[in-house]
Amino acid sequence: MYNGEEQALWKDVIGSKYGEYNPWCSNVSVDAYRVGVWRTIRNLWQKLEANAYIEVGDGRRTKFWTDAWNKQIPLKESFPDLFLLCSNPDANINECWKAQGWGGI
Q1: What is the pTM (predicted TM-score) of this model?
Q2: pLDDT digits (tens, 9 = 90+) for 68-84
Q3: Closest Cα partner for 89 from 102, 77, 101?
Q4: ∠ CA 9-25-79 to the nearest 5 degrees?
Q5: What pLDDT score does 24 carry?
Q6: How far apart (Å, rounded) are the C-alpha atoms in residues 75 and 64?
Q7: How many CA atoms lie within 13 A of 90 on its CB side?
Q8: CA of residue 86 relative to chain centroid, distance
Q9: Backbone torsion region of residue 59, taken as left when φ is above 0, otherwise alpha when ψ lies between -120 and 50, otherwise beta
Q10: What residues pair up with 41 in beta bridges, in sequence order?
Q11: What's the pLDDT score for residue 83?
Q12: pLDDT by 10s per residue, the chain, length 105
């Protein structure tokens, strides 16, 4: 799993070559001259994303604003005006929970 292997060499190579679209996948490959396995996998991301869901767990790997953990729509898209006001757009769910004084998940 792309997001589940923080220290994996293969993830570092993919991230260095393509960049990170979000914590769950890389940017789209724009290399027009070669057809690679990762390019094919990445081009299928929208189909996978439409048919998958995020299990929050302890909330440390799920971004509060940018991941589609709530009805498969990122909160930044559901509440764009509120997103503009947030102080930490990259906060994960666990950090937001703690910021409210509710402890950890």
Answers
A1: 0.54
A2: 887 778 899 999 999 99
A3: 77
A4: 140
A5: 66
A6: 7
A7: 2
A8: 18
A9: left
A10: none
A11: 93
A12: 555 666 778 777 777 777 776 666 676 666 655 557 777 777 777 787 777 777 788 888 888 998 888 777 889 999 999 999 988 999 999 988 888 777 655
For residues 13 and 36, is the Cβ–Cβ distance under 8 A? no
**SS in 3 state form for the chain?**
CCCCCCCCHHHHHHHHHHCEEECCEECCCCCCCCCCHHHHHHHCHHHHHHCCCCCCCCCCCCECCCCCCCCCCCHHHHCHHHHHHCCCCCCEHHHHHHHCCCCCC
Q: Are 69 and 78 in contact (CB under 8 A)?
A: no
**Which of 61, 50, 60 lies closest to 24 in space, CA to CA?**
61
Instruction: Scan for tokens 């503009």, then name that residue.
Output: 84
